[in-house]
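User: Hi! I have a protein structure encoded as tokens and I'd like to know what sequence might fold into it. I'm fairly new to this, so please keep things simple.
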């Protein structure tokens, strides 16, 4: 430790200038550590080449929750650390580009962190981590999906790819109509108007006699803040005009038709015709 002898360290501990956190790791001035300090202490306790990984890396990035009382660290050698509160993994073959630093703390890269989380999280929790990574500008879904192309066969790739492909799945207009219209008929809906201007917006499917507007979304993760703002304003305008509105993803239309039909059927039971819609801008 900075060239101090064992006696010099002992003297500073007794005088209160150093506080032992774990074997070989000391806090200067005070014993209390914030979360970042606890992470750094765990890394130092594991020696050279250690870094945060898995849930702890996700917590540092703000995209996952850490297990209570457990800090997850990986090392590039045989793992022999059996200290309370530490989960250490040996990863001698992890490439150097999969490790970096954040706030001065060694940590797995955003892509590697997402891959590690995919091996320990269920689909719903992993989806939340994907969303948080995008929202916090840790890694956007398009870049993440592209990075998976060079990592075929690695742990975590398959569940990540399945989630990303599901939520960025896109149908052409022709395919969308071909798949959606039979679902609408099965739910008891008459033939809708398509690509009609309603309240100043072009909508995918429109039933003027029922006051129902349905939009379908693809490329969920690629939408810019401006696009999200436009969608919110569109939905607000339709609601203010008294219209019922629904949104389905392209993936739902193709791969979850029973769900789409069920929602359409239940919606149809309480539809009321709205006031006349305006075709011009609002």
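Assistant: Happy to help. Inverse folding works backwards from shape to sequence: for each of the 282 positions I chose a residue that suits the local structure. Here it is:
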């Amino acid at each position: 430790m900075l060239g101090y002898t064992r006696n010099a360290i002992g003297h500073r501990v007794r005088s209160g200038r150093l506080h032992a956190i774990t074997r070989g790791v000391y806090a200067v001035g005070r014993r209390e550590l914030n979360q970042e300090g606890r992470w750094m202490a765990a890394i130092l306790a594991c020696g050279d080449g250690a870094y945060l990984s898995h849930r702890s890396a996700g917590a540092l990035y703000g995209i996952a929750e850490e297990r209570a009382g457990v800090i997850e660290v990986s090392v590039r050698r045989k793992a022999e650390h059996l200290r309370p509160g530490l989960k250490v993994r040996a990863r001698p073959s992890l490439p150097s580009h999969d490790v970096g630093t954040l706030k001065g703390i060694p940590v797995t890269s955003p892509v590697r962190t997402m891959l590690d989380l995919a091996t320990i999280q269920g689909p719903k929790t992993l989806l939340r981590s994907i969303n948080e990574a995008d929202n916090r500008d840790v890694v956007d879904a398009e870049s993440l999906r592209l990075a998976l192309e060079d990592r075929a066969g690695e742990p975590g790739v398959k569940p990540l790819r399945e989630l990303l492909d599901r939520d960025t799945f896109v149908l052409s207009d022709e395919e969308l109509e071909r798949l959606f219209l039979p679902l609408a008929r099965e739910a008891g809906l008459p033939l809708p108007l398509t690509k009609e201007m309603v309240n100043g917006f072009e909508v995918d499917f429109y039933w003027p006699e029922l006051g129902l507007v349905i939009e379908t979304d693809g490329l969920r993760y690629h939408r810019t803040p401006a696009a999200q703002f436009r969608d919110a304003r569109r939905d607000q305008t339709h609601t203010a005009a008294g219209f019922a509105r629904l949104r389905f993803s392209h993936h739902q239309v193709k791969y979850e038709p029973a769900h789409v039909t069920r929602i359409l059927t239940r919606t149809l039971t309480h539809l009321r015709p709205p006031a006349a819609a305006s075709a011009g801008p609002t």
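A useful reference point when you look it over: The two ends are 69 Å apart (CA to CA). Feel free to ask if any position seems puzzling.
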